[in-house]
Amino acid sequence: MDRMPAWADAVLVPLISLLLAAILSALVILAIGESPVEAFRLMVEGALMRSAGWGYTLYYATNFIFTGLAVAVAFHARLFNIGGEGQAMLGALGVALVCLYIPWPHWSLALLAASASAALFGALWALIPAYLQATRGSHIVITTIMFNFIAAALLNYLLVNVMKPAGMMEPATATFPQAVHLPTFQDMFSTAATPLFRGSPANVTFFVALLACLFVWALIWRTRLGYEIRAQGHSETAARYAGIRPVRIVVIAMLISGALAGLMGINSTMGEAERLILNSTEGAGFIGIAVALMGRNHPLGVLLAAILFGFLYQGGAELALWTNIPRELIVVIQALVILFTGALDNMVRMPLERAFLAARRRRTRRAEPAE
Amino acid sequence: MTDTAPAIELRGISKAFGPVQANKDISLAVQPGTIHGIIGENGAGKSTLMSILYGFYKADAGEVFIRGKKTEIPDSQAAIAAGIGMVFQHFKLVPNFTVLENVILGVEEGGLLKPSLAKARRALTDLAREYELNVDPDAVVETLSVGHQQRVEILKALYRQADILILDEPTGVLTPAEADHLFRILAGLKREGKTIVLITHKLREIMEITDTVSVMRQGEMTATVPTSETSPEHLAELMVGRKVLLRVDKTPARPAQTVLEIEKLRVTDQHGVERLKGIDLAVRAGEIVGIAGVAGNGQSELLEVLGGTREATGRVRINGEEMALTGRHADGRTRRGQGIAHVPEDRQRAGLVMPFAAWENAVFGYHRDPAYNRGVLMDNEAIRRDADNKIDRFDIRPANCRLSARSFSGGNQQKIVLAREIDRNPDLLLVGQPTRGVDIGAIEFIHQEIVRLRDAGKAILLVSVELDEIFSLADRIVVMFDGRVMGERDPAQTDERELGLLMAGIEGEPDKPEWQAIDEQWERVEAEEEAARHG
Amino acid sequence: MDFLTALQVLDSTVRLSTPLLLACLAGLFSERSGIFDIGLEGKMLAAAFFSAAVAFTSGSVWMGLLAGTAASIALSAIHGFASITFRGNQLISGVAINFLAAGTTVVVAQSWFAQGGRTPSLPPEGRFQTITLPFAEALRDVPIAGPIYHELISGHSILVYVGLLAVPLTWWVLFRTRFGLRLRAVGEAPEAVDTAGISVVGLRYAAVAIAGVLCGIAGAYLATGLQAGFVKDMTAGRGFIALAALIFSKWRPWHALGACLLFGFLQAIALRYQNIDLGAFTVPVQVMDAAPYILTVVILAGFVGRAIPPRAGGEPYVKER
Amino acid sequence: EPALIYDLGGKFDKSFNEAAFNGAQRWAEETGGEFRDIELQSEAQREQALRRFAEAGLNPVVTTGFSMATPIANVAPDYPDTKFVTIDGYVDPEEHPNVLSILFSEHEGSFLVGMLAAMASETGTVGFVGGMDIPLIRKFACGYAQGVKAVDADAEIIANMTGTTPAAWNDPVKGSELAKAQISQGADVIFAAAGGTGIGVLQTAADEGIYSIGVDSNQNYLHPGSVLSSMLKRVDVAVYDAMSAGADLETGVQVLGLAEEGVGYALDEHNAELISDEMQAQVEEAKSRIIDGEITVTDYTAEDSCPALTF
Ligand SMILES: Nc1ncnc2c1ncn2[C@@H]1O[C@H](COP(=O)(O)OP(=O)(O)OP(=O)(O)O)[C@@H](O)[C@H]1O
Ligand SMILES: Nc1ncnc2c1ncn2[C@@H]1O[C@H](COP(=O)(O)OP(=O)(O)OP(=O)(O)O)[C@@H](O)[C@H]1O
Ligand SMILES: [Mg+2]
Ligand SMILES: [Mg+2]
């Protein structure tokens, strides 16, 4: 019945799209007078050929997994959560409160508590937009945009006026106590003989992110709640018919979404900076939108897209280190990747589909006379 | 007549949608000044063929001749220019536009709207007089009854001076009287020399009005015969490829205790329009109560209230127990707990989640049942086993529960819903339009299942716009009009004409021509609605 | 707030609202035709850069406007290509366009002017100067009306008046012309448009192109009207606020004017009254900074209610699945 | 070969980072040497850039921005042979012997331009536009306010911040509106310490015919005749010196104030006509008194409060 085998749709289409994005990126690099070959070599070597490069790639990917999953879960309920940024900021705040003001005997306990707190804060920040959408019909896109700004203002206030240690220049909290230091990949995988992931920020949170992928997968495709979320997302009329209460689904889906975005805080704040800084989210909430859409809102897709973006971030850093290519070029490359794999995928898919259909026709025609 | 070229001649038309071959090498000639019927099962390719003629789809192969001249029809503009007008099965109207705006869309005079609107207003008055096609030119289309929406479609075609008019299943949404009225208009058009192609599932209509009839099956044109030389039974056989039972066999009902009692049920929609204006009704175990009425007269709202998707005031008791009509217990989940199963009118929007697989749809609404769950997780294995059972018992095709609901045909989609709801063995089954858009073969099966449930002592409330269906299933017929019960009839002691009038809100013999009386009723209702919206 | 202050705040409101308004109307055309557009921000940004760059190089602000508009239309074309021709996801396409503009403007600016992704400061002829309406000086001293005319109504750059005129024009085009009728139809029921023999694709491209023009003017206003040059990311999220205003206005031109003026007003107030001193306690600047956003949510939840987008919005028009 | 790491604002922010770049350029031109540099894009890159440059044998590694202090403290022990320089950040010299912390007394420089502002103002109201409400910006504002009050105890100071998101540093439109709002409240001199946003402030001041004061680099040339002066923060000199010293760089903590010519106010052909001899004399006098310790300018970040301004 299908026009094209599933593998082609899942593998061939994105690969060709990526290739197109790469070719166009190469042209742009050429246009500004640099060597694309050299640039790609630097990116790949810096991001994928060294363990430390992987350490960075996966660190960024961890952030994007959380925000990507957050957007994806909301999308399943047909809610466009642009508020990942603000929710992540609040999540980071939650992490900081737990890490700073409670003495923890061991990082594992702290991680549990910080995760809970990050999720809680993120979820609470999503709650008001969710509730207003569900009961008043206030468009979630507007409210979540607004809540991003409000979160930034709140964090700015708290860091400058409340949480900053006296006399410190930076609007940041004190460094968290050593006890809540999360094991990095270096701590976990290095041996004296073979140092791995040296200095890179990837840490145990990556596994939390993988768990989150698993959790979202199970939630969406294995639980009643996920079933209801998807039903509501596909058709509110149908959901109502089945006795699914839209208000409940909207609120719960957004709470989960916000919680996932909030969890990003454990990676950036507890895992990397080890203190709460003003700019802890750095737009990862928005990257999450691209990641979720490119990953087709499936956890596995989100994971892959997040790693792709992690690679672009880390590869971009390498470019910035060793060439004079401006850092914004990486943004251009990201844009091309999003454009080709996300929005122009049909440009690749349509001709492929036709090719497969034609091939099948030929096969059946050749088979017919034999019958 | 023999030396004039056919008004339409199609040669070797083929069309594939991806892997589905909708039209295979079809040739057809339609003589000018005739009414040509086309029949065929669902999915036979009728709509596709006509849409190609109208430039909506592009044929993969084949040629079109209009009045003997080879004509390229790359888009609808070309079809309109060639004098072809089409009333689609699913209306192509802009719902929030007025009638006038819909009529001028695409044939405006110049860049500004004002002159076009004025011209169309005048033309509409003339057309209305000429063809007895009254609609308020300033009414917003979505507020019109379906019958009137269809008039707008016909007016659109006439305004474009079509002399070849294609109507795709126009009577599915009309009362018998309205259908008669339509046919009178078509006859008039024919007298003027216009050519008409009529697609319908109703053999009676074919026999009544067409000059020639073509039969399609699985994308091919299997026969074209003069109507006078054929019979309904013969046509049915040509369509399905086997003999079909056109009537349901059923024994007299043996009603027992009252299952459902409705008192003074009222519903007001979000625009402030009262949709149910005090309904009293009872359904007993072991009987089928059929609600007849033109779409949009409150039947949908009645089903929605009972199914738990709409709030209401009044009293409803199920098995003697009071039913919550507002608040969080007025929902589908509670209703299911009370033994109510519901086959909704719109299977694609309500009854199924189209992107879900069949197995997921097979428990939709019952997905919280412990049988389908293990702890927090759903027991997908059990659900799939259950779905396979249902597919087996209801002969759902293709027999693959992993396909999405979307990839089943309309009839099979309906069977999925029915299987799910009937399988629960409910005390009360609510059924809306069970065979809408379903072909003859499947209708037979669906009707048998409903009767079987009745015979098992269950109460059944059936809503249908098909009078044939009401007649063949219902033990009691209740007619609804404008949110009220117009009356109750015994199917053995009434006829289509009487019901048709009741469905238009007319009791007893009207003092003017039927269609005129009906029109006045509709206009009154639409005006009231408009007032309520703005009041 | 005394009269003069009120005037000044309103004056500021007009300036802050204009780019929002132009972008919002751009979104209105696009979304009325059924194409969602979250790339307003990117289009404005690209227009801001190219208008400033060309105004600088050519010394003509009008050339700048033209170039900015062309850049914005080019991005619109990409959006159209992705979401109309290739039926891609309109949200992704919009996100991509925002990224593309953010990156490209700086990369191009850097290799063109080598001033770190900035254009040089524009000379006067490279900027839209404020214009004084007739009699503004003469009427200046008339009580109440005089200052209103002189301060508030007169003395903006021409693009402000273009923006304000765009509102009735948009209304007129949408509701009084053939094009508008078809445009509204294609956002509600593309199949009706198609069967009426009108090209759905053509209409949608036209709408997207108009959106490009309006975003172009918005961007040019930022860089050559309000400012004298381009600074990276200078749109600073205005495209998203415009999007919010569009939803707020429920896709209606006059309401869009109201929504944008409201957003502009809230910002102007927040800028003007940053340090409100309540005696013992000074309201922190962050509270005032967040106030426009908080108020927006309050107004939205309290008064605006459900916004129903054009029915066919966001979905590509697919005849044959 | 030395390395230079710019803060997130980017190499060409027309003020702070750009000054660092200029210093490095000058060094490169004068010595014919080469240096590597990187514009950071994210927080995590701070440590990364430090490590990568140190591993590549670049020495010294000069960084700008207070946010580099913590990363340097984390990284420095791993590369004892590399000298790290943090401009604006403070790293404990006891613990990290291979780090040089360079701190500027921005409050002193701001004090001087505050005096200029008060003297140039005819309305007795002056303005300040900051990028974001962070301690560093408060330090600027506080020094400025003290300078203003030193000249005119009754002067009014309107201090505004642009926003709370990173966009606040790149929103010239908002800068313009803030300037206009301040002008309408009577301000006729405005000091902008707001990165790209400041461009808008200076532009509007020029358009509206009032004075503005630039920051970090000498911005007088942007609008000759309108930019009253610029509060100089000689990051360029600091970078130049550090690069010149090379691997032999002396570590520890350097505080560059007026005495060290690390901060000051700009006087050049673009604003010569705006600064009368009398004004210059007064400022120079205050300068020497500050250097002598006769006047103490409160450093907001030391006290977390300001005698002349409330936040
Ligand atoms: N969108 C679609 N995608 C894939 N396959 C489809 C789609 N629509 C229809 N089909 C396939 O085309 C076939 C015919 O569909 P259609 O709804 O016309 O069937 P039908 O003949 O009306 O069947 P029924 O009598 O059960 O209503 C079905 O078998 C279905 O699997
Ligand atoms: N737009 C479409 N895309 C893909 N498949 C389609 C499309 N329209 C129709 N089909 C398929 O083409 C076949 C013929 O459909 P068509 O609508 O012409 O049937 P029909 O005879 O009009 O049926 P019905 O009586 O249900 O109206 C069906 O299998 C249907 O599923
Ligand atoms: Mg059909
Ligand atoms: Mg069908």
UniProtKB/TrEMBL annotation, chain A:
Keywords attached to this entry: Cell membrane, Membrane, Transmembrane, Transmembrane helix
Domain of life: Bacteria
Spans through the membrane: 12-33, 53-75, 87-104, 110-128, 140-160, 204-221, 249-270, 276-295, 302-323, 329-348
Any Pfam family matching the protein: BPD_transp_2
Gene Ontology MF term list: transmembrane transporter activity
Chief location: membrane
Compartments it resides in: Cell membrane
GO cellular component term of the entry, any: plasma membrane
InterPro entries xref list: ABC_transp_permease
Topology in the lipid bilayer: Multi-pass membrane protein
Protein's name according to its UniProt entry: ABC transporter permease
From TrEMBL, chain B:
Record-given protein name: Heme ABC transporter ATP-binding protein
Alphabetical keyword list: ATP-binding, Cell membrane, Membrane, Nucleotide-binding, Repeat, Sugar transport, Translocase, Transport
Entry GO MF terms: ATP binding; ATP hydrolysis activity
Gene3D superfamilies for this protein: P-loop containing nucleotide triphosphate hydrolases
CC annotations in GO: plasma membrane
Topology of the protein relative to the lipid bilayer: Peripheral membrane protein
Domain ABC transporter: from-to ranges: 8-243, 260-507
InterPro entries referenced in this protein's UniProt entry, alphabetically: AAA+_ATPase, ABC_carbohydrate_import_ATPase, ABC_transporter-like_ATP-bd, ABC_transporter-like_CS, P-loop_NTPase
Organism of derivation: Rhodosalinus halophilus
SUPFAM superfamilies documented for this protein: P-loop containing nucleoside triphosphate hydrolases
Family assignment from sequence similarity: Belongs to the ABC transporter superfamily.
Subcellular location: Cell membrane
From TrEMBL, chain C:
Compartments where found: Cell membrane
Gene Ontology terms: cellular component: plasma membrane
Membrane among keywords: yes
Transmembrane segments: 65-84, 91-113, 158-175, 205-223, 254-270, 290-309
Membrane disposition: Multi-pass membrane protein
GO molecular function, one term: transmembrane transporter activity
Highest taxon in the source lineage: Bacteria
InterPro entries documented for this protein: ABC_transp_permease
Main location: membrane
Keyword annotations from UniProtKB, A to Z: Cell membrane, Membrane, Transmembrane, Transmembrane helix
Transmembrane helix listed as a keyword: yes
PANTHER family according to UniProt: GUANOSINE ABC TRANSPORTER PERMEASE PROTEIN NUPQ, SUGAR ABC TRANSPORTER INTEGRAL MEMBRANE PROTEIN-RELATED
Descriptive protein name: ABC transporter permease
